Every structure is written in structure tokens, then in C-alpha cells.
């Protein structure tokens, strides 16, 4: 069992930045994929970014490339999502997810993940 706890959401103006954190516990994550998804009002959960814990290789949704950065801290067992140049359309609940293995094409979908956090709200005002 992996427990994931997100934090760092809030209200920010367009063009601003936020850093989300996902603290993980319960398992050694060295062979896990960690990911961020978001769900905007009235929409399905969508992929944002992922990282292979073992080597730090990263994957991004096209619309987030260049604005968002996913990273991990081995000592803190925490995954981060640095979000810059935020837009009102980034408003959503952001979820942390995890599963064993390395990133694969099917892991762009929420169904590819086993463990989920409770989510943290990000609101970007125009």
C-alpha cells in the first residue's frame, strides 16, 4: 500500500506560479512511476506529468511542456510539480498517482495507476 498526500494548492493570479508536493509513504518508490493528473470542473481526469523514480526521466502533456516541471526528492520521498505561467484553464483539482514499474504509453491514462492522493485545488484567476 502506498499513501499519497498532496499539498500546495491555492489561489493564484494568471501568470503566477505554484509548487505542488506529493508526500509518499508505505513503500520504497525506487521502482515506481509517479504522476500528476488534474480534473477541471465537468471534465475527466487528465494527465499532466510523470516521472520514473529510478532515473528521474520525465513525461509531460503537450500543453504543460515548458510551463510545468515534475521532480522528485529521494530523501523526502516526495514528488513535486512546479507550475509556472499559470493560466485560468489550469484551474482544477490536481491529483498525485503512483504505480509500480516504468512509464509506458498506457500510463497517460488515469486507469494505469493504482494509488491516488486526495487531490489539491488549484484556482487561477484572470
Record the SSE blueprint.
Layout: E1 3-7, E2 10-13, E3 18-25, E4 32-39, E5 46-52, E6 58-60, E7 68-73, E8 78-83, E9 92-100, E10 115-116, E11 120-125
Give your account of this protein's structure.
This protein has strands at residues 3-7, 10-13, 18-25, 32-39, 46-52, 58-60, 68-73, 78-83, 92-100, 115-116, 120-125. The protein has 126 residues and is an all-beta fold. Strands 2, 4, 5, 6, 9, 10 and 11 form a seven-stranded mixed sheet that branches. A four-stranded antiparallel sheet has the order 1-3-8-7, with no helix packed on it. The protein is globular.
**Tally of contiguous helical segments:** 0
Share of β-strand residues: over 45%
Would you identify the regions where 5 or more consecutive residues have pLDDT less than 50?
A: none
The average pLDDT score comes to 95
Instruction: Tell me the Rg in angstroms.
Output: 13 Å
Task: Sum up the overall morphology in one term.
Answer: globular
Terminal residue distance: 40 Å
Number of DSSP-assigned strands: 11
Structural class: mainly beta
Helix percent reads: under 10%
Helix-strand topology string: EEEEEEEEEEE
Biggest beta-sheet profile: 7 strands, mixed
Question: In brief, what are we looking at here?
Answer:
This protein is mainly β and 126 residues long.
Q: Descriptors for this entry?
A:
126 residues, globular, 11 strands, mainly beta, seven-stranded mixed sheet
